[in-house]
Design goal:
CATH topology of chain B: MetI-like fold
Helix content of chain A: 25-40%
Low-confidence stretches of chain A: none
Largest sheet of chain B: none
Helix content of chain B: over 70%
Structural class of chain B: mainly alpha
Oligomer: heterodimer
Radius of gyration of chain A: 19 Å
Largest interface: A-B, 32 and 25 residues
Strand order of the largest sheet of chain A: 6-7-8-3-9-10
CATH superfamily of chain B: MetI-like
Number of strands of chain A: 10
Number of strands of chain B: 0
Shape of chain B: flat
């Protein structure tokens, strides 16, 4: 379970000798239950990426609490933080695969830094590569793969430490519609078969509709509504949600 | 032909010894400059405001040191360091005497080259590595250095060639090697043939090093397969 309580995030920057504060997140709270596929939806610049990075503390909240499985992890650092992150996989919009490592070496990376023996981590990686349908590609390098294949490698890599939570930051935004569906189906399978809780950031309602059982809509650093995907889309309360639906809604009907 | 024959009989051994001295000087200096320069470059990147462990004061001071090292002309450094060189290797002459100022001069240069290579690594990879629970040391070793290896090798070739050029200057204060020969025979005794010979050898060496560097970097780079 992931609980975010009153999270704020403020970036300081100096411009023309003047001190500015940029409030990216303003008192954000939500709870993601185990087994959820939780969508965070909003337009670019709404604070989605910063928000999802607060969960694994790639961004440290300015105030508020991050509670993972009942433990307050907000002030974790050093070994505790490393341990926490091994329990939370992450997938990125641009895949972020290591270009100088083979497919297999990419998937084993999280286990390698965890000190797992070579045989064990390669066995685990091969199992995951077979799950994402890329068993025959383990010796190739990322530059030799298509975007969809790269994202499947990234998903296998994120799962290597057997995390209970997976964060997806615009995981399908760099992919075409067909490939997006393949990735979404894979993520659904991971959610159902492995019971991995998924937090999915997207600006696309169609994508959110396809994969998320619950969603939160974020606008200008604030959560403007949240609930079951079905309910939010059927009875949108916030102006932003209605605008997003107007723009994209027909595709959902 | 006869002229060449006579030339090689007279100067062959001298040029071969000079070439060898230059190669040793350059190799050892480059290696030692990297031993000092890599940690410096890594520290600059890691303590950068956007780095893994931002530390403004440390980063600024380190930047100054590197810049000061780079702003002193080598020929001045060479002379200024003579007491230091004597203290370290016991002499300011010959190959050992040249290596000390070469390393002192090249280490900041290497630090900047390494910094530049590491900065080319996509920030998304660093973030990914962090998200998988990597320690700072693991990120430096397994991501920064590994991902930038082709760029580091290309930088290595440039550094090697730069030190090559400096090593010729070291010849002016009795540093030995091809530069020493070029100055003593070419400049002081007006023996242009000897000077030309040293230049040709230098050109060949530079070409070899550059091609090896370029090919090696391309061969290990997995990005364009």
């Amino acid at each position: 379970m992931i609980q975010l309580e009153h999270i704020t995030k403020t970036f300081d920057h100096v411009e023309h000798g003047e001190h500015h504060e940029h409030h990216v997140l303003k008192d954000v709270s939500f709870t993601v239950e185990d087994g959820d596929t939780f969508g965070i939806i909003g337009e670019s610049g709404a604070g989605k990426s910063t928000l999802v990075r607060c969960i694994n503390l790639l961004e440290k909240p300015t105030s508020g609490k991050v509670i993972i499985n009942g433990t307050d992890v907000t002030n974790y650092s050093g070994k505790q933080l490393v341990q926490l992150r091994r329990g939370i996989g992450m997938v990125f919009q641009n895949f972020n695969l290591f270009a100088q490592r083979s497919v297999l070496q990419n998937v084993t990376y999280p286990l390698e830094v965890a000190g797992e023996a070579k045989d064990a981590r390669e066995a685990r990686a091969r199992k995951l590569l077979s799950m994402v349908g890329l068993s025959d590609k383990e010796k190739l390098y990322p530059s030799q793969l298509s975007g969809g294949q790269q994202q499947r490698v990234a998903i296998a890599r994120a799962l290597s430490t057997a995390p209970s939570i997976m964060l997806c930051d615009e995981a399908t935004s760099a992919l075409d519609t067909m490939t997006t569906n393949t990735i979404l189906n894979l993520l659904k399978r991971i959610n159902k078969e492995l019971g991995v809780t998924i937090v999915f950031i997207t600006h696309s309602l169609a994508v959110a509709n396809s994969i998320c059982n619950r969603i939160a809509v974020i606008d200008d650093g604030k959560i403007v509504e949240q609930g079951k995907t079905h309910d939010v889309f059927a009875h949108p309360q916030a102006k932003v949600t209605r605008e997003l639906l107007d723009m994209e809604g027909k595709a959902l009907a | 032909m006869e002229y060449l024959q006579a030339f090689f009989n007279q100067y062959g051994t001298l040029l071969a010894q000079g070439t060898w001295a230059t190669i040793v000087m350059t190799f050892v200096s480059t290696a030692l400059a990297y031993v000092i320069g890599i940690p410096l470059g890594v520290l600059v990147v890691v303590t950068n405001p956007d780095g893994l462990h931002p530390h403004r004061i440390f980063n600024t001071v380190l930047g100054w040191i590197v810049n000061i090292g780079r702003s002193i002309p080598f020929i001045i450094l060479l002379v200024a360091l003579i007491p230091f060189t004597r203290w370290i290797v016991g002499t300011s002459l010959g190959v050992p005497g040249a290596i000390v100022p070469l390393v002192v001069s090249a280490a900041p240069f290497v630090a900047r080259m390494v910094e530049q290579s590491l900065q080319e690594v996509n920030g998304g990879l660093i973030e990914a590595a962090q998200s998988f629970g990597s320690s700072t040391w693991q990120i430096v070793y397994k991501v920064y250095l590994k991902e930038s290896l082709p760029s580091l090798i290309r930088g290595g070739a440039i550094t090697f060639i730069t030190i090559f050029g400096y090593s010729a200057m070291a010849g002016t204060v009795g540093g030995g090697g091809l530069g020493d020969i070029a100055i003593r025979y070419g400049y002081q005794r007006y023996q242009n043939d000897v000077m030309f010979a040293t230049i040709i050898i230098l050109i060949i060496l530079v070409q070899i090093v550059q091609s090896v560097g370029t090919h090696w970097a391309r061969r290990i780079d997995k990005r364009n397969r």
